[in-house]
Amino acid sequence: MKKTITELSLLGGFALLLAGALFLGSCEGPAGADGADGADGIDGIDGVDGTDGTEGVAGNAVCLECHITAVKTAVETQWAASLHGTSQTFYPGSPTTVQYAGGRNDCAKCHSHEGFVETVWTGLDTTAADIPIPQPVRCKTCHDFHSSLDFENEPNSAIRETRSVKLIAGGDMVEFDNAESNLCMHCHQSREEAPDDTDGAAIVEIAEHWGPHHGPQANLINGLVGYDYRGEVASVVGGGPHDCVSCHMGDVVGDTIGGHTWVADVEGCAGCHTVVDVHSELVLLQDALFAAGMVDAAGHAIESDEDAGVVVEYQADSAGALWNYILLEEDASMGIHNSAYALDLIDASIKALTAATK
Ligand code: HEC
Ligand code: HEC
Ligand code: HEC
Ligand code: HEC
Ligand code: HEC
Ligand code: HEC
Q1: What is the mean pLDDT of residues 274-288?
Q2: Which of 34, 73, 162, 349 pairs with 173 at a CA distance of 20 to 30 A?
């Protein structure tokens, strides 16, 4: 049988298979009745609903905290009343400070928009040339584009200059934790250095405009640029946890305090603590200088007068007392920027004047 199959031709084999299929088909009997349906399976338990996704923040919501007309108008109102926005005059009809100093290449850095923008770019303290029509400090003097738009992790107010500051007088590097306050220290500096105190008896001339420049706040708050009587007055940093922005640009009260008025909320300080005011001590130093003939009754320094041929000179330790007095007067915070340092400077200065007149 096995042999027979192998001998079949391919075609013959196919015919045989076909015949078999026909035979099987012709053998099918009538269909039996359908079997009963099986029982339904038990339903599966429903899955727990997924939590809803958090709603996405509208793309520009964070931008609208600042970039709306209401904020801009409020800021402009504050700014219009500020000295940054207006610049001071000295007597009726006198030029404003920006007109007087804003164009000069060694003053422009701090006294005009153009000067600040140029010196932030060059890193120098002077401009390359005088500025013909200097403009006062304005929004875009302090502001530029944002350093980052990731406000959650890198909050910023688009401040033009936040780098730490190399002080013009003495060259110390100073900075705040909140780098936006470094902006202020680029301009609010003494510029001049205290007389050399190594030889307290050396002779110092009190030339016209002698003394630290009008805004020495960055130096004072860092305990620098006082005449320290050969280290007798230790350098200490003032301000505690505060910085220029937190004290001068806090919550706006009316249109005259806080924010872009730059006026510190002195009454608001009392909400948390009392603040040491060294005014009465400073008056004692003024009295001592007046008694020594070094200031006039209004507290102005007696200076050399070239035209009149008058030369005013003192030993360095006395000149240092005058320096410290002008420093604290020009700082104009009544010692609040650094009361410990201010009080020590006043004490040492009065001591030196008393010793000199004995
Ligand atoms: C904390 C406040 C604040 C927030 C938040 C903020 N900005 Fe600003 N932005 C400013 C200030 C201040 C300036 C500079 C002054 C000005 O131009 O009014 C500025 C400037 C800009 C400028 C430059 C304009 C120019 O003329 O150079 C652009 C662009 C800008 N912001 C876009 C944005 C965008 C986009 C967002 C949101 C992703 C945003 N800002 C969020 C405060 C903010
Ligand atoms: C571009 C330089 C510059 C920068 C930056 C600057 N200031 Fe001034 N600031 C000045 C000048 C100059 C004046 C005086 C304005 C005048 O008379 O023209 C002044 C005036 C002020 C006054 C008013 C002083 C008074 O006699 O009543 C305060 C307060 C003040 N600045 C605080 C600040 C604070 C805080 C910052 C930082 C947020 C700052 N300034 C940043 C240059 C600057
Ligand atoms: C490093 C920054 C800086 C430079 C440079 C500078 N000043 Fe000033 N100047 C200031 C600041 C800040 C004030 C504001 C102080 C304040 O009001 O408390 C000021 C105030 C003044 C005032 C107003 C004085 C007052 O309080 O009545 C005059 C005037 C002035 N400066 C002239 C000049 C001249 C002139 C030069 C150049 C020889 C010059 N400044 C260079 C920062 C500077
Ligand atoms: C002397 C520097 C200076 C000038 C000039 C200045 N700003 Fe600012 N501005 C700042 C600083 C510093 C901050 C950050 C304040 C903070 O962190 O609380 C700021 C913050 C802001 C903000 C953020 C929101 C708020 O109210 O604090 C806006 C908006 C703004 N400035 C707009 C302006 C406009 C508009 C002008 C001009 C009218 C202007 N600034 C001029 C220094 C300046
Ligand atoms: C601890 C809070 C505090 C800090 C920090 C601070 N200030 Fe002051 N500042 C004051 C107070 C308070 C006054 C006195 C204001 C008054 O009498 O109206 C003042 C006065 C001033 C004045 C003179 C204002 C005027 O009306 O003549 C200037 C300018 C000034 N500060 C700038 C600065 C600068 C720049 C910084 C940062 C280097 C700074 N301040 C840091 C609280 C502070
Ligand atoms: C929200 C609360 C609060 C406000 C408002 C406040 N301070 Fe402070 N201040 C503190 C804290 C907290 C400290 C750190 C603890 C301490 O030294 O007492 C401090 C510390 C200080 C220090 C350093 C104290 C020292 O002995 O060296 C001075 C200066 C200061 N504040 C001045 C001011 C001035 C000026 C104002 C108003 C313009 C003010 N503070 C507003 C909370 C505040």
Answers
A1: 96
A2: 349
